[in-house]
Structure to design on (344 residues):
């Protein structure tokens, strides 16, 4: 019996004023047509009922424990209750937004670490709303790493991968100004990232020998140093070290020729040196279906690759394709990941 059959997925509420609740409700209504794995959402049942009515969706909702979610999923949307009420209106975050979003993430991680859920799937958050409430982590990924350490006592190095059937990309540096990339990027950082990516592609995605293509930092991968020496002094040595460690890695490659159809056949994942170098191509190729996967954690975590879309929250215009893809991929990866032992 697979993890998909044994355990439900824990889905976070995300920013309640955003489209996360809309997507959750839409996904449940399509559960049979899409053969979705069982999931429960951590939120406020009354709030979700109100949003369902606003969207004219017929979604019965039951408050459950994680253990009851699989048995409930066919007839009703299972909701594991948060403490406190959620009162945010579509498009308008309020004082309940940040506490609900944070508590939902924290409960999802606790459930998967306790062996009550197969994986964590996160709805989009609004970082500006969280920052105003005193949230200290840069984003979802870093907060998940901190929660993991709280549960295990071991620090982890999370790696963000954006995955779609067309393309998978990893930004080696993520949310920082371009001027900071040159000070942050090191061969050690690239090698550590590549090792985590190769390990998880094998362990969770079932890729026996992952092929990593590393983009150059500078235009034309530095043009033999005439457009910048970093590709000679940082990226190329990192590629050599990865190859010496037995990882199939190539580069540095000119980023402007890495992402066309013929080029993509030659690798399983592209490691890019900064945020937009990775996200522009995948959002161009798979805007509605790409999935954010956090590698390097002791549990599976996926998320839609889009934001809260306050402007269309509560209107029925949001497209649930990325959340649906996130749920399906989480179930697939969880089936390849040994279940965590229940907490004692």
């Amino acid at each position: 019996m697979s993890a998909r059959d044994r355990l439900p997925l824990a889905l976070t509420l995300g920013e309640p004023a955003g489209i996360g609740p809309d997507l959750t409700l839409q996904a449940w209504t399509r559960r049979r047509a899409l053969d979705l794995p069982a999931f429960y959402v951590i939120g406020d049942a009354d709030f979700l009922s109100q949003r369902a009515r606003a969207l004219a969706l017929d979604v019965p909702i039951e408050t459950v424990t994680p253990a009851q979610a699989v048995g409930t999923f066919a007839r009703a949307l299972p909701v594991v209750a948060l403490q406190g009420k959620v009162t945010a209106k579509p498009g308008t975050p309020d004082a309940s937004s940040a506490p609900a979003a944070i508590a939902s993430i924290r409960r999802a991680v606790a459930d998967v670490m306790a062996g009550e859920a197969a994986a964590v799937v996160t709805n989009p958050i609004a970082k500006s709303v969280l920052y105003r409430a005193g949230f200290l982590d840069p984003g979802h990924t870093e907060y998940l790493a901190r929660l993991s350490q709280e549960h295990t006592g071991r620090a982890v190095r999370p790696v963000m991968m954006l995955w779609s059937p067309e393309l998978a990309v990893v930004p080696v540096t993520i949310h920082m100004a371009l001027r900071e990339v040159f000070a942050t990027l090191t061969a050690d950082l690239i090698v550590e990232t590549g090792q985590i990516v190769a390990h998880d592609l094998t362990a969770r995605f079932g890729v026996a020998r992952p092929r990593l293509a590393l983009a150059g930092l500078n235009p034309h991968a530095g043009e033999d140093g005439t457009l910048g020496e970093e590709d000679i002094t940082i990226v190329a040595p990192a590629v050599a070290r990865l190859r010496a460690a037995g990882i199939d890695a190539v580069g540095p490659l000119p980023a402007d020729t890495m992402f066309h159809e013929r080029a993509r056949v030659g690798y399983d994942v592209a490691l890019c040196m900064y945020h937009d170098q990775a996200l522009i191509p995948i959002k161009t190729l798979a805007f509605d279906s790409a999935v954010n996967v956090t590698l390097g954690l002791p549990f599976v975590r996926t998320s839609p690759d889009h934001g809260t879309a306050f402007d269309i929250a509560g209107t029925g215009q949001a497209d649930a394709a990325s959340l649906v893809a996130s749920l399906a991929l989480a179930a697939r990866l969880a089936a390849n990941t040994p279940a965590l032992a229940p907490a004692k």
About this structure: The two ends are 24 Å apart (CA to CA). The domain at 166-281 is CATH 3.40.718.10 (Isopropylmalate Dehydrogenase). Residues 17 and 89 are 5 Å apart (CA to CA).
